[in-house]
Structures are given as structure tokens and as C-alpha cells.
Design goal:
Number of strands: 0
Largest sheet: none
CATH class: Mainly Alpha
Strand content: under 5%
Number of domains: 1
CATH superfamily: GntR ligand-binding domain-like
CATH topology: Four Helix Bundle (Hemerythrin (Met), subunit A)
Radius of gyration: 16 Å
Shape: globular
Structural class: mainly alpha
Distance between the termini: 51 Å
Length: 163
Amino acid sequence: MRIQRERIEYGTEFLKVLDSKSKKEFIDILNARKIIEGYQARLAAINITPDIAEEMKNAIDLQAKHSKKEISAEYDALFHKLISSVAGNKVLDVMLDLLRQDGQLGPALVYIRKQMKTSIVVDHEKIMAAIVSNDPDAAEQAMVVHIENLIKDVKKYWEKISI
């Protein structure tokens, strides 16, 4: 019972942090994602199947098509979820789901990248190429660079709106 109660308390505290909208917590969430998703990309490069590779390509194609005319985080989330699934680590998969559970985070990041005139699609293509090539080091590095690009854009955007 004590362990169960502690888990609930820690879980509640974790959810409070995820619900925050400050610049620092936003960046903290991205840094946590960088660690988790970097390792998931590494595992995905080891476990990739032709079917998942095709789904990833389709998600990127749809994202590229829709990013020109609308702000849509749907295909971004699908791409990251495919990597998480093929990585095969259920604990990391659930952790990522928790980090991404805020329905505003994905659209906010897509909006920020549009405002900063940077492309998620380019990053995703590099990640996918490394995963499909079965190169765990390159896949992890490409994901880390992707999340670091998001962090840079968030910082630049915050500076822009704070002026």
C-alpha cells in the first residue's frame, strides 16, 4: 500500500510538471524527450522492419504535403510513435506517451517551427534514413539533433515574443 501511495504521489507530481506552460518546463520536457527518443531511435535502427519503414515514409510524405498548407502535428506524432513502437521497449514507450500526452505540445512545436521557418520534415527524413540503414549511432544522433533543433527554435521563439 505504501509503495502504491508513493507511486501515485510521484505520478501526480510528474503530471503537474508536464502541465506547466513555462519556457523552462517546455525545454525540460524536450530534454527528457531527447534522451528517451534518442535511445528509441537507436533501438529502432536495430529492430526496423520493411513494413514499419514504409509506414514511416508514408507519415513523412503526408507531413510534408500537409505542412505547406496547415499546422498539423498528427503526422509528427505518428512518426515518433512508429519509432517508439519499433524500438520495442514498453517502459520507454509509456514514458514518451506521458511526455507527449499534452495535446497542445505537438501543435505548439509545429507552430513554433513554422514561425521560425524551420522544417520538422527535414529532420524526420534524416532520422528515417539512419533507422532504415540499420545505423543505431546515426539514428540516435539524428534524433538528438532533431530535438536540439526544437529546443533552439523554442528559445528563439520565446525571445521573439518577449521583445
